[in-house]
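B., you asked whether I could sanity-check this one before it goes into the benchmark set. Here's the sequence:
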Amino acid sequence: MKLPLSWLKEYVEIDIPLEELAHRLTLAGLEVEEIRYVGWSPPRSKGTQETKITGFGWDPEKIVVGAIKEVRPHPNADRLVLCRLDDGEEEHTVLTGAPNLFPYLDQGELDPPLKAAYAREGARIIDAYSESDQQEVAVIERREIRGVESYSMACSERELGISNDHEGIILLDEDAPTGVPLADYMGDAVFDIAITPNIARVANVVGVAREVAAITGADFQFPSLDVKMEGPEMEDLASVEIKEPELNPRFVLGLIADIERKPSPYWVQRRLKLAGIRPINNVVDATNYTMLEIGEPLHAFDYDLLVERAGGEAPTIITRRAEKGETLTTLDDVERELDDYSVLVTDTQGPLSIAGVMGGAETEVNEHTKKVLLEGASWNYINVRRTVKSQRLSSEAAYRFERGVHPALASQGVLRCLEWLRKWTGGEVARGLVDAYPQPFRDPCVKLTEEDVNKWLGIQLSPEEIAELLRRLDFSVEVKDEELEIEVPPHRLDIGEGMIGKADLLEEIARIYGYDRIPETNLAAELPAQKGNPALELEETLRDLLVRMGLQEVVTYRITSPASENRIFPAGKGWGEGEHVRLANPITDERTVLRRSLLTSLLDIVDANYRVREQITLFEIGPEFSPREEGNGLPREKDRWAVVMTGLRSEVHWQEGTPGNYDYYDLKGVVESIAGELHLGDLSFAPHQDPRFHPGKCARVQVGEEYLGVIGEIHPLVRENYRLPDTPVVMGELELDILVEHFSRLYEVEPLPSQPPVLEDLAIVVDERVPASGIADVIRETAGELLADLQLFDVYQGDQVGEGKKSLAYNLVYQHPRKTLTDKEVAAIRERIIKNLDKEFSAYLRR
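And here's what the prediction gave me:
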């Protein structure tokens, strides 16, 4: 935000060097990036680390206020005129081609004379015709132009470094004193302040003035809201109807009649230009000037057009959501299709403006306007932000409304602007305002103690000193029994309630007290007892184990869309409406809900990368979200870990053949390895049905009787929703909480056996539908503690075992901890195993 110093001084006295003021403002959170001197000579210093110093000074002896008394034609040039100008010492003949002087040609003696910025011979000015990006300085020298000697000039704003305007000379206000150095009359300095979202309250002159008063101790003067109202009663001229107060808590209207539309006074135009706003006319300038002054964006309607739309009756202004298919042509002459969540200002005939963003072209103020209906309002900042984003439409008003404007400013802005309009247009202001305020804003009240300030800021301040610091910022403070009760002023939306409000006030105290004055101290409070975090420790352990196995961790967005989430299901299946946690204010159409599954994000990465990678092994650890059944409260948040593997099992090597591709057993090995490293114990896999996975290639993973997760190969119909490699894609999604529950760093260990093992192979024939895990369970249960290891090393189906049968070959290792097993003992165990397998599965030895 660009802020002229002359404007700032209207509300607060400044008696310290500008560089020091910039430094103190920056320390208080208002970073002054640059001070640009206009007319005043900038100091020799180039500025501090945080503030740059620039500018162009006007020689007080050479550049003064001149009075143009007569404008005559040039005898030898149609595009030039000769001015008779008084510079306070003598009269001069000034040659110029300024187009804004041609209307005064041959009018004789001008009464009153035109006041202009006049540069005498030898003055240094900016070369307005230089094509360089840098300001080049030129010296006015005597020369002859078309037979007339020229030795001085009337200056444009560009030649004096005020702006880039070079369409005409500067015509000052009538009260400009002739002969006075121009630097004394209108010299200025412009502060360029970086406004961050948390201090949007100071995106106006009054807001910065309040901060300056607080940090310097100077008196702050709020602008007068007195308005000379002599017109008819406002309540007879218009009415307001607010459909949704939560989106529009306050709406204020005022009216001024019999206006004369013309340029604003030059001092107003100059301030607007220095602030970065292009002057238009006195009506538009009044709304912009007020917005920059106190922070309330305003909008002006042509009142007669509204009456015409209302059939000659007093118009009713309505605020409501847009209806489906509704359109509005805005002031930039673009017809816009409106979203059903956008709020509109309308009358009974249709839309008039997009609330808080931009007005409509149909009822804008024009050269025929005689009556202006002035609107000041408060809007829901989130709704304005959504509208700005969807319409791709930004404005100075939207910049403020989407960061929050207090409802109290609505009436203040209208009153202040009506008085400017009365002074600049000569109109008559209607009596009173139409003020619809169905949802009054309740400013918070926060309690604070001396101990809070000492504890959190490390400074010793008495309750009275704390109260004084806050009162500088217009907080109302009452000290009761060493406790301060603080009422937030009606221009602050950034102060919360309870503990949040207390933290906000502590920040305000630190800012005004001075961050640079807070001493560096060691931590004085007692440290809390050290406690372990088993869940976090296990998560880190799991992460390390997966990386050690060759998998790569990814971190994906937790916010997605229902369409993206449902890609992991075959067509016609998936999560339905209401089964996602939906965001109230999504940032894009692709980020509207919280994810239900980590696998969707992992498959998106495979989709995007499989063309450039022959091997992809990914994992992610993070939360998944689901709504609560009762429909209120926070969503359920479940921590899970997911794995996706596809491509070559290992890199191609010249000494080896082409490696195979990852399959179900590779993923099963990862899960088993994790279970072994974490000593989970009773891990089992069972056939499972899941629409996301290939039928017959999907397993349910359990630890004891508890569900751990599901692993398997992706369903063929799901593959069609992605661009995936031709190789198998295996994936798994498992619970993190179950690992935490069963994981323990303390576990039993056994000494290495001193007795030799007995190795035996056992091949049995069973029905092909019998799972291998069931056979293994019977073998382990029968052999008991003497079975040291069991491995399935072969599965065969064919003519040798018969149709509908399969052969499972196991390698068994028997071992006793204290003695050597005999053949007889091993044979007995073998017979019991065969007998129990026959009993359970009708299994028999393969011959």
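One thing to flag: The mean pLDDT is 92. Otherwise nothing jumped out at me.
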